[in-house]
Amino acid sequence: MIRNPKDLLRYTPAERANHWLVGICFILLALSGLAFFHPAFYPLAQLFGGGTWARILHPYVGVLMAVAFLSMFFRFKDLNRITPTDKEWLSRVGEMVDGSDHTMPAQGKYNGGQKMLFWLLALSMLLLTLSGLGLWRAWFDLPVGAVRFAAVIHAAAAVLMIALITVHIYAANWVKGTIRAMWYGTVTRAWAKQHHRDWYREMTGKP
Amino acid sequence: MALQSLDIARRSATTTPAPGARQTTAVAKLIDVSTCIGCKACQVACMEWNDIRDEVGSCTGVFDNPVDLTAKSWTVMRFAEVEENGRLEWLIRKDGCMHCADPGCLKSCPAPGAIIQYANGIVDFHQENCIGCGYCVTGCPFNIPRLSKEDGKAYKCSLCSDRVAVGQAPACVKSCPTGALQFGSKEQMQDYADKRVKDLKSRGFDKAGLYDPPGVGGTHVMYVLHHADRPELYRGLPNDPSISPLVSLWKGVAKPLATLALAGVALGSLFHYVTKGPNEVSKKLEEETEAES
């Protein structure tokens, strides 16, 4: 949907579909995975038809997420190269959190925080995939020492990913006018100018 | 289902106290390796009482049959030929669940009530609550539980909890023709083992002793070994077993810490919004861009 012909296209339909495929997988995996992690979360297994079904489904959804994530990784990796401006942005992230983002250095399509999120998510996805295969007893039978190591890695990487996604979802809600980029692809020019001025310049040719 | 007549000490994936109004005597099975003749009557009795029939295997050149524990073979005789003091020794060990006082399987299990530790010390799997994740296999320091390929549930020796609940000895003990298997209160078994160890020492096995490893809090299945200083001689019986530190980290301190961390991130975000307010596009910029176009 284009509310205003002046709006800027931030995500193509394919990029949005890819993002939401990863997002759905993440939600299913986090809910079922937490059920196995702490008894307080075990009732979440009921959402999947009980503990046994949660155990059966979790790894297959994991494989789907790994594939969808890899596709997204290749779509966005070049846009997420860390530059000196990003490092400056990151060193002053406190001002951003404090709510005074107008003093922050001008950013391209992604700011330093978004880029850090990208690379940390890629790292946790890689660790989760590899360790997850080691825990998948339906198909794999690794030496017990390796499985124990994989269990610790899987839990740690999962906690990291859930925390990162919580921040990701929060940031999208906190910065008004952001979520529509992932729903229907566009953002307003004012939004772009305020949050990603260099990208705004690139897209519009205006100062 | 947990047995009504046995009180529960611990229940997997449960954070509240288990019913424990009654005090129960701790029981134990004693396996005297030095008087075992390897007849496998215990394996047969286990199959009979528990009504399980494993696939018929094939001979692999040794006496072990079946060659390993399976979801349908809860106890297996393991034969070892070792040379000690220039003499051949044929060491035969009945392998199966050790019923640890601090069970790694129960610690790892994510399914509430799938693993029960009775107050008498028996660690029992309740397959109707089992989700088949295999975490018990990961947690066990003795490599005992086995996942069934047929139903995806984990199985192991129950120490005949159904028999013990009504005052009977486990089926394997009942069938042993030499008295190598004994069953009673843990205290009685320790006393009996003392006598056996003294006897073995008088016959030249000066390292004879009782295997009741403290690393897992002691076990409710114990061995009398002629070479208690080297349990690994008995087909890899672990020397000083304990729950792996990785398992303790994963299913111990990590659980509350990670839960708190995630709650902190979620609540921190909420309160950030409430205290700092949303990050809106400034009115001035909106008017500016409007004028530009």
Structure description:
Chain A is an all-alpha fold. Chain A has a single domain, classed as Transmembrane di-heme cytochromes, Chain C (Fumarate Reductase Cytochrome B subunit). Chain A contains nine helices and two strands. A two-stranded antiparallel sheet of chain A has the order 1-2. Chain A is elongated and about 60 Å long. Chain B is of the alpha+beta class and 293 residues long. Chain B folds into two domains: 236 residues, Alpha-Beta Plaits; 46 residues, Single alpha-helices involved in coiled-coils or other helix-helix interfaces. Chain B has eight helices and eleven strands. In chain B, the strands form four sheets. In chain B, strands 9-2-11-10 form a four-stranded mixed beta sheet. Chain B has a three-stranded antiparallel beta sheet with strand order 1-5-6, with no helix packed on it. A two-stranded antiparallel sheet of chain B has the order 3-4. The radius of gyration of chain B is 26 Å and the shape is elongated. The model of chain B has no long low-confidence stretch (mean pLDDT 94). Chains A and B meet through α1, α2, α6 and α8 of A and α3, α7 and α8 of B.
Summarize the structure.
Chain A has 207 residues and is mainly alpha-helical. Chain A contains nine helices and two strands. Helix content of chain A is 67%, strand content 2%.
Rg over CA atoms of chain A:
19 Å
> What is the total domain count of chain A?
1
Instruction: Give the domain tally of chain B.
Output: 2
Largest sheet of chain A: 2 strands, antiparallel
On the 0 to 100 scale, the average pLDDT of chain B is: 94
Distance between the termini of chain B: 73 Å
Q: Quote the distance from N terminus to C terminus of chain A.
A: 27 Å
**Which whole number gives the mean pLDDT of chain A?**
95
Order of helices and strands of chain B: EEHEEHEEHEEHHEHEEHH
Structural class of chain B: alpha+beta
User: CATH homologous superfamily of chain A - what is it?
Assistant: Transmembrane di-heme cytochromes, Chain C
Number of strands of chain A: 2
* Main sheet attributes: strand count, strand direction, barrel closure of chain B: 4 strands, mixed
The count of DSSP E runs of length 2 or more, i.e. the number of strands of chain B, is 11
Q: Regions of chain B with pLDDT < 50 over 5+ consecutive residues?
A: none
Helix percent band of chain A: 55-70%
Strand order of the largest sheet of chain B: 9-2-11-10
Radius of gyration of CA atoms of chain B, rounded to a whole number: 26 Å
Judging by the overall fold, what is the CATH architecture of chain A?
Up-down Bundle
Outline of chain A: elongated
Report the β-strand fraction of chain B as a percent range. Answer: 15-25%
